Structures are given as structure tokens and as C-alpha cells.
Amino acid sequence: MANQFEVVVIGSGPAGYVAAIKAAQLGKKTAIIEKWVKKDGKTTWGGTCLNVGCIPSKALLQSSEMYAEANHGLDIHGIDVKSVKMDVSKMLARKDGIVDQLTTGIAGLLKGNGVTTLEGKGELKANKMVDVTKNDGSVETIQAENVILAMGSVPVDIPPTPLDGSVIVDSTGALEFPEVPKRLGVIGAGVIGLELGSVWSRLGSEVVVLEAMETFLAAADKAISKDAFKTFTKQGLDIRLGARVTGSKMKGKKVEVTFQDSEGEKTEVFDKLVVAVGRRPYTEGCLSTDCGVKLDERGFIFVDDQCRTTVPGVYAIGDVVRGPMLAHKGSEEGIMVAEIIAGHNAQMNYDAIPNVIYTHPEIAWVGKTEEELKADGVEYKSGAFPFAAIGRAQAANATDGQVKILADAKTDRVLGMHIFGMNASEMVAQGVIALEFASSAEDLQLTCFAHPTLSEAVHEAALAVDNMAIHKVNRKKR
């Protein structure tokens, strides 16, 4: 007789483990399945985010930011530091230690909440039966009343640059360079490409970013992306737009990359090449042909607004479904689904999901961009305020960037907040709360912000929506 569970989760990334913990907290007999095995042969929990994504990349970003600050940013404060060196092996060891601590913590949380952990690859069969193929090849079959599919995503490969795991790598490989490449190529100027390119650029690598699109960060508000492009270029990132990679070949221990731009065919030689052109949902071997779950034309699992698949009692969350591939989006979907399974009313607000790029300065936004509002024919008003006019930003030597707020011209409701600047990832939460509670620009105008703080830029941007900013000259009212 198959083992029986009320909830079975396949995948233990931020979507899966959060769903499993929440389901268990709501009194459901829950199991979670994970296939990821570390180099030591032991199963690791936390998925891409904790193991080779969000967490290790932020550890390297932090280390590289501190190195760059020590090298170039302390003199202005009157601090004289000589002979600053980077021990790459120590930096990587710190990163690995953080990953081990957090993944071990997830295992402890699962156990502490009474979730049964199953090691192996999960495959959904017909009638909500799930096969777990263990590392030794044996198969255990379990019966589930409800199944939550949370297998995550994997990097996209492109034919012109086949990975070799040494010179040509994906985002995972870019976290493991044993030394700083003299010349680094990055294909893709998206979130991953910019973050990883920033790490190695700060450590001394000459970084060239090849982006096929003509527009830089098309998903961001144009004013913000324009600001960011200017700053990143000044920092030394060589970002080439409209550069479509067509081929590559090894030149000894280096790689020659061929690409097309508006001037024709060109080549560049790199010591290392990072392919960061996006990610795709991972479903291979996880869905039997008779399980009933349908995929859309892009390979994502088809779901409704509450993450129900085409099979009653089967849900899908995180990177395997539509929407942005963000850890926090997957986690919130996991909580929503667990609540629904427990018989509660639950709905996620997809209009209030923050986006963050952890460059330096950071880029963060929530809600609509000005370009989207124009395309939708929405009447809006906007206000912006530069960090250069904020005292705390000047004290921190972090005056690059701005805060921009968009509001409905008729109702004054906040429609979007866009930030380029220091601590943007933290400040954007103010915009998320504003959207979640349907706040108006006036609500932000009437809110008392502490002084001196970076968040005063949010206050001033809200005031600027109605030409009432205090610390800059406002546009003339018509």
C-alpha cells in the first residue's frame, strides 16, 4: 500500500519549502521531495535560490562591494588604506559557509514543522500518485490528496555558446571562478548578467556585456534604466546593446565570441564567458504523460490565478508557472496554495510584487512603469526626486539615482514606485505597502519620514507628483 499524505510537494526551493511548512502548520500531513545532491553526496534543501542563486550571488556581491569601497571609496572619508587585496578562495569559502548554514536551516525547519522529507526525484503520475526515484535507483510510490509542483527553473542554453563548465559557464559556474578573470564576457544584460558582471568587475576583471536587445532593462521604467546605464558604464561595465551572439570557438584556454551588431560581425576574446540569457521552467521527468497536467506554449505549467493546474487537487507554484521568476513570488504562491488546500480563502496580489536588481547602486520597482501606463492609455501623474539632494545620501557618498512615483491622475492612487540608488531593495517595500493598501500619493505626502534617511526621497517624490517637493524646484503648474 502506498504511503499516503494530504499534501506532497515536489521541489524544495523558496516556493516548495514554504508551501510545505505552511501546509504542515495548517495541520496537513505533508511530505516534500528533493533531488538535489551536493558534491559530498548528501541531499541539500532550498533549491536554486539558496544553493546557486539568490544567496551565494548576494554573498559575492557584498564581498566585492566592500573590496571596491576599500579600494576606491574610503579616501573621500579621510581614510587612507594601502595595499588592499582580495583572497578569492576565502571569499568563496565565506559564500559556501553561508549557503551551508541556510540550507541546513531549511532542513531543520522542515523537520521542526513535522514535514516528511523524501530524497530523490519526484514524478507525478495519474490519480495523484507520486513516484520518488531515490539515488540508489529504487522507487517509492506515495499517494497524495493534494500535490504542489515546485520544481523551479534552470539556466537557458544557447547553441552558439555550448557550456564546457570551465571557460564557458552558466550562472552557477560564475559563482565558482577560482581567480579573477582578466577579461570576462557576459551574454545577457538582465538581472543575472548585471549582478554577476558587477561582482567580477569590482574585483578587477574587464567585463564586456553583450545584449541582443536594443533597449537596456526594458522591463524597468525608462528613466530608471537610463540612469542605471549611465552609472554602470561609468563604473567600467562595457555594455553593448543590439549585440547578438552568433558563435564561439576555443582559442587555447580562452574563448573567441562572434556577434552581430549594427556595424556588422565582430569578435571578442575572453578568459571566461558567462551565459546569462534567462531561465526556463524545469519539468523534465517530473510529469508522466498520463498525469493530466498541461503545459502552455512556453513550457510553463498552465495554472489559474490561484495556481490550480488542469488536474483537481494538483497545484503549481514558483518558476514553473507564469509570472516573474522571483523567490518571493514563489513563496507567496506557496502560502496561498497551502491556505486554499486547508479550506481558507486566499489570493495573491500579483500587482504588488517587487523586482530588485542587486547591482550597486540597486534597482528596484513595483507596479506599473510610465511606458506601461502610456501603452494602456491610463492618465497618470509622476514625481521624481534625486538622491543627490538627500543629506543622508551625501553623507554616505551614495548620491547616484532617484526615486520616481506614478499615480493615477484622477484618483491619486499610487500605480508604481521605481528606485535606482543605495538600499533600493529595502526602500521599495514602501511602494509595495502603498500598492497593497491602495494608498494615494497624498497618503505618502502626509506621512512623516525620519530625517536624515534615504527614504526621504520617497516622501519628496510623492510631493513632486503634485509639484510640491520641498527640496527641489518644482515644475511650473499649468
The number of strands is 22
| Biggest sheet character | 7 strands, mixed
Relative strand content? 25-35%
What kind of oligomer do you see?
single chain
Average pLDDT taken over every residue: 97
Number of helical stretches of at least 4 residues: 12
Distance between the termini: 76 Å
Radius of gyration: 24 Å
User: Helices and strands: which structural class?
Assistant: alpha/beta
* Percent of residues in helices: 25-40%
Q: Which residue ranges are poorly predicted, with pLDDT under 50 across at least 5 consecutive positions?
A: none
So what's the overall shape? globular
Descriptive notes:
There is one protein chain. With 478 residues, the protein is of the alpha/beta class. Helix content is 30%, strand content 25%. It contains twelve helices and 22 strands. The chain has helices at 14-25, 47-52, 54-73, 88-112, 191-202, 222-235, 327-341, 370-376, 391-395, 424-436, 441-445, 456-464, and strands spanning 3-10, 30-34, 116-119, 121-124, 129-133, 139-149, 153-155, 168-169, 183-187, 206-211, 238-241, 244-251, 254-261, 264-270, 272-275, 279-281, 314-316, 355-357, 362-367, 380-386, 402-408, 414-421. A hairpin with a 5-residue loop joins β21 (402-408) and β22 (414-421). α1 (14-25) runs parallel beside α7 and α3 (54-73) packs antiparallel against α4. The longest helix is centred in the N-terminal third of the chain and has 25 residues, at 88-112. The protein is globular, with a radius of gyration of 24 Å. The model has no long low-confidence stretch (mean pLDDT 97).
